[in-house]
Amino acid sequence: MPRKILEEKPITIPEVKKLLEELGPAAGGDFFVRTLDYVTKFAKLGPEAGELVRRLVEEAGLSEWEAVQIVNCMPETIDELRPFLTGSVALYSREKMKKILDLLDQYR
Questions:
Q1: Within its chain, how far is the Cα of 92 from the centroid?
Q2: Alpha carbon distance 86, 95 (integer Å)
Q3: Which run of H or E residues covers position 7?
């Protein structure tokens, strides 16, 4: 029987890693192992990723989805950041994008 989705929420790669580690390998077989391997390789931050998402939402005015995507990739330049803001790039001045990068730099 298919499972019912109760809630949909964007989460960072480090949050996925933490959830998978809590479940343990007995929870899902080969798919579980491959997913845990992926998130272990590509997690650019640790548990502080959730705090960074919150700060980007509150201090930079990003949507939660935008903040999660940015934290997952941790862009280093304005040119790398710009694709994450495509829906609202006109709203972000160079100074505001620099502020976003400065926030990211605090967590590198």
A1: 20
A2: 17
A3: none
The 10s digit of each residue's pLDDT in 29-80 is: 888 889 999 999 999 999 899 999 999 999 999 999 999 999 999 999 999 9
Looking at the structure, do residues 87 and 68 belong to the same domain, yes or no?
yes
Amino acid at 12: T
Shared domain for 70 and 86, answered yes or no, is yes
For residue 58, which amino acid is it? E
Show the CA angle centred on residue 84, arms to residues 6 and 33, nearest 5°.
Answer: 50
Q: Is 61 helix (H, G, I), strand (E, B) or coil?
A: coil
Distance CA 70, CA 104 (A): 9
